[in-house]
């Protein structure tokens, strides 16, 4: 099949484009080159590493579930209803996308911490949130939620409401329409949104260390472990970093697949 | 199951009232932007009118601006199905499950609703496509499936929004025949800008223009004697009813008109209608001798200007001629003339 002919780009544009691509790819190459392949598995098998890795996977999975639980209804309300102040609300809900994670951590601390807005309520219930695994999940959900909301809202808008209208005139109640028409139609968008949210949760650092601290086995996730090891055991930090790179590559593959099937 | 509609949507400048009797098909005929979609949206419960009342089988579906409490029965609770221009089959469901969607949504079990769906697929002639996905069938087949899906929901009122507009012209005659069959005895509101759809599917026609109903009545009267500019231009069709006899339409008055039958061709002796536009008619004073064309003796009743031409009217037919031709022929009310039409210009439709 012949490639479609189009107006060419100016040839000088390739210089900054290639430089930019190099800027992104070179550090990855450096990481691969510095990986101590001989001791790779030993480094990953150390108790601290496995504990951090398992904690990261567990908390990220939980926060992805929370994102689905709250994000799907949020995206639906934003995409399918209209009310006063909706634009402002959307911007505020998406704020964690651009907010420095440390600031998010501080904000969470003053919400769920012992002296926080809801802290006393939780205290009465006998639950202490801050500096617990729950805090890790909350921090990750806080930063990952907007990713799911944004990509699902986009998918919902692209899908439009025509099928939903037909379903309703065939006698389907709103819940049936949601379950049997809306969700299946946006499934690719939902999948890629969930995968992105999972990736963001997995990489979460700033909000976690601020709000949850760094307690081995409890709140010390993989990014925190990498940061701490960097001082004492650089090869281990590199090996763990490579694990996160591998996960990231997988995630991008998944997300792309979700897009293309849309 | 009478459907009564009387509603105004100020924002779109649409204010119409009409009634569809139980078992009747009413065609709402009008140009683009006349307000047809607005009427459908209000009827389906997708749009709240500023004022008015919509009623189906004695049940108020929409009441607005009447002083009392407003009513807006949600779309799923109206028993009003909508068939749009595009089939809009749910892409993730098989054809069978698409058709079973309505019964299932109304609480029927999975296998019972599939049985209903199979019956309807057979009714529209595509039972062999039940297992296919919507992406794997043609546009005409998909629209048939959409018809089956709308009817399987067992609506009290069926709304058809230009059901043939998005289809290939090659498949429209067959689908029209199917619609004629399955819509008989149903209460239907058909929105269209195609006079032929109205002619073949509707018992009555209401012409909507600029948000108002400008003409309504029996289909044959509205189409042959249009009172609105739009129907005169887009419709204004000549129609002669009769029976199909050896490649020609034989009318009650004994005329024999050769025409081109649609697909499938009507059976011998079947009731048919010959349809041709006024522009296809040539006017002569005497029948041209030895011509293979149809020559219909007529008496001119009146003449009127029509878009730069002169429309010559008789009690049953119309012809468009140039002003020069009208002057040369010295046409005047009461004059005898002969309308001549080629067989290729005459479409014959089974009734």
TrEMBL record, chain A:
Q: Which CDD domains match?
A: TM_PBP2
| ABC transmembrane type-1 domain mapped to chain residues | 53-255
Q: Where in the cell is it found?
A: Cell membrane; Membrane
Q: What family is this protein classified in?
A: Belongs to the binding-protein-dependent transport system permease family. CysTW subfamily.
Q: Which NCBIfam families match?
A: Mo_ABC_porter, modB_ABC
**Subunit structure comment from the entry:** The complex is composed of two ATP-binding proteins (CysA), two transmembrane proteins (CysT and CysW) and a solute-binding protein (CysP).
- Function as written in the Swiss-Prot or TrEMBL entry: Part of the ABC transporter complex CysAWTP (TC 3.A.1.6.1) involved in sulfate/thiosulfate import. Probably responsible for the translocation of the substrate across the membrane.
This one is known as Molybdenum transport system permease
Organism, scientific name: Promicromonospora thailandica
TrEMBL record, chain B:
**Residue span, ABC transporter domain:** 3-235
Q: What is the lineage of its organism?
A: Bacteria, Bacillati, Actinomycetota, Actinomycetes, Micrococcales
PROSITE patterns assigned to the protein according to its UniProt record, in alphabetical order: ABC_TRANSPORTER_1, ABC_TRANSPORTER_2, MOP
Protein name in UniProt? Molybdate transport system ATP-binding protein
- Domain Mop span(s) in chain numbering: 289-350
Looking up InterPro entries in the UniProt record yields: AAA+_ATPase, ABC_SmlMolc_Importer, ABC_transporter-like_ATP-bd, ABC_transporter-like_CS, Mo/tungstate-bd_C_term_dom, Mop_domain, P-loop_NTPase, Transp-assoc_OB_typ1
Q: Which GO terms describe its biological process?
A: molybdate ion transport
Q: Which keywords fit this entry according to its UniProt record?
A: ATP-binding, Molybdenum, Nucleotide-binding, Transport
Q: Which SMART domains match?
A: AAA
Point out the coiled-coil segments of this chain.
none
Superkingdom of this entry's organism? Bacteria
Q: Name one Pfam family in it.
A: TOBE
Question: GO molecular-function annotation terms?
Answer: ATP binding; ATP hydrolysis activity
């Amino acid at each position: 099949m012949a490639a479609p002919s189009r107006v060419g780009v100016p040839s000088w544009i390739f210089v900054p484009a290639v430089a930019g691509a190099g800027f992104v790819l070179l550090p990855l190459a450096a990481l691969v080159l510095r990986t101590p392949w001989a001791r790779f598995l030993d480094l990953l098998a150390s108790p601290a590493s496995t504990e951090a890795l398992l904690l990261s996977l567990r908390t990220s999975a939980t926060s992805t579930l929370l994102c689905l639980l709250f994000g799907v209804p949020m995206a639906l309300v934003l995409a399918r209803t209209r009310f006063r102040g909706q634009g402002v609300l959307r911007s505020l809900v998406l704020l964690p996308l651009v907010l420095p994670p440390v600031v998010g951590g501080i904000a969470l601390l003053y919400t769920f911490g012992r002296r926080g807005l809801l802290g006393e309520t939780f205290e009465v219930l006998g639950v202490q949130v801050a500096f617990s695994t729950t805090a890790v999940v909350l921090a990750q959900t806080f930063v990952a939620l907007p990713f799911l909301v944004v990509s699902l809202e986009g998918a919902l808008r692209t899908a439009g409401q025509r099928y939903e209208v037909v379903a309703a005139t065939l006698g389907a109640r709103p819940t049936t329409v949601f379950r049997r028409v809306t969700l299946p139609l946006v499934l690719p968008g939902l999948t890629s949104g969930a995968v992105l949210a999972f990736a963001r949760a997995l990489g979460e650092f700033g909000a976690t260390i601020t709000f949850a601290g760094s307690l081995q086995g409890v709140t010390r996730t993989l990014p925190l472990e990498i940061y701490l090891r960097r001082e004492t055991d650089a090869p281990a930090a590199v090996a763990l970093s490579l694990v996160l790179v591998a996960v990231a590559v997988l995630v991008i593959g998944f997300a792309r697949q979700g897009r293309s099937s849309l | 199951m009478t459907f009564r509609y009387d509603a105004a949507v100020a924002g779109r400048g649409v204010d119409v009232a009409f009634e569809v009797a139980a078992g009747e098909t009413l065609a709402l005929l009008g140009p683009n932007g006349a307000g047809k979609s607005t009427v459908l949206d209000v009827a389906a419960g997708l749009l709240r009118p500023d004022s008015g009342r919509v009623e189906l089988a004695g049940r108020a579906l929409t009441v607005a601006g009447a002083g009392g409490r407003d009513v807006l029965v949600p779309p799923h609770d109206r028993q009003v199905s909508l068939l749009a221009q595009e089939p809009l089959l749910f892409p993730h469901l098989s054809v069978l499950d698409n058709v079973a969607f309505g019964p299932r949504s109304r609480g029927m079990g999975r296998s019972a609703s599939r049985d209903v769906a199979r019956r309807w697929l057979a009714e529209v002639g595509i039972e062999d496509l039940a297992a296919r996905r919507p992406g794997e069938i043609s546009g005409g087949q998909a629209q048939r499936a959409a018809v089956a899906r709308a009817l399987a929901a067992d609506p009290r009122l069926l709304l058809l929004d230009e059901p043939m507009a998005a289809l290939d012209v090659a498949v429209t005659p067959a689908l029209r025949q199917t619609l004629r069959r399955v819509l008989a005895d149903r209460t239907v509101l058909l929105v269209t800008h195609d006079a032929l759809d109205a002619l073949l599917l509707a018992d009555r026609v209401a012409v909507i223009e600029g948000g108002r109903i400008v003409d309504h009545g029996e289909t044959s009267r509205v189409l042959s004697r249009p009172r609105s500019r739009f129907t005169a231009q887009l419709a204004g069709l000549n129609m002669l009813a009769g029976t199909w006899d050896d490649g020609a339409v034989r009318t009650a008055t004994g005329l024999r008109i050769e025409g081109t039958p649609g697909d499938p061709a009507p059976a011998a002796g079947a009731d048919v209608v010959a349809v041709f536009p006024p522009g296809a008619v040539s006017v002569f004073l005497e029948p041209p001798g030895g011509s293979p064309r149809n020559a219909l003796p007529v008496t001119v009743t009146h003449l009127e200007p029509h878009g730069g031409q002169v429309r010559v009217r008789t009690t049953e037919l119309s012809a468009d001629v140039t002003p020069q031709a009208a002057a040369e022929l010295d046409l005047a009310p009461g004059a005898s003339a002969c309308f001549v039409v080629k067989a290729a210009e005459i479409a014959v439709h089974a009734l």
